Amino acid sequence: MSSHQQQQSYKAGEAKGHAQEKTGQAMDTMKDKAQATKDKASQAADSARGRTHEAKDQTGSYLDAAREKASQTAQATKEKASEMAESGKETAQAGKEKTGGFLQKTGEQVKGMAQGAADAVKHTFGMAEVDEEDPHSKTGH
Q1: Sign of the C-alpha dihedral, residues 126, 128, 132, 133?
Q2: Is 94 helix (H, G, I), strand (E, B) or coil?
Q3: Contact 10/2 with Cβ under 8 angstroms?
Q4: I need a surface site. Which of 1, 39, 49, 119 has the fewest CB within 10 A?
Q5: How far apart (Å, rounded) are the C-alpha atoms in residues 130 and 134?
């Protein structure tokens, strides 16, 4: 081999070594950048998961509060309905008592009028019993 060929071979080897070194450096840089991108993506995913859990917790809290409010409203409505039913029951009882008293009074009045009519008819036909206080009685004094 001539010195010129050796020199060219040396330069070629040297160039090849530089190219390999540059390629290795570029590969390392690319690996570092890929790892950094992967880390950033992982952090973003973790952050998103955290925000998702926070949102879920907040939603759960809102739902729990809404359920509690609905339960309280239902209980209040139930109590109000119970009070109204009791009030209606008391009003109905009072009405029943008033109606019963009215009907009893009316019944006694009708009974008294019927008795008076019967006595008048008996008196007219002379079938009335002797009444010492009744001066119109035919069988009396």
Answers
A1: negative
A2: helix
A3: no
A4: 1
A5: 8
Length of the chain counted residue by residue: 141
CA 66 – CA 116 distance, rounded (Å):
73
Task: Give 76-96 pLDDT, tens digit per residue.
Answer: 888 888 888 888 888 888 777
DSSP string, the chain: --HHHHHHHHHHHHHHHHHHHHHHHHHHHHHHHHHHHHHHHHHHHHHHHHHHHHHHHHHHHHHHHHHHHHHHHHHHHHHHHHHHHHHHHHHHHHHHHHHHHHHHHHHHHHHHHHHHHHHHHHHHTT-PPP-TT-TT-TT--
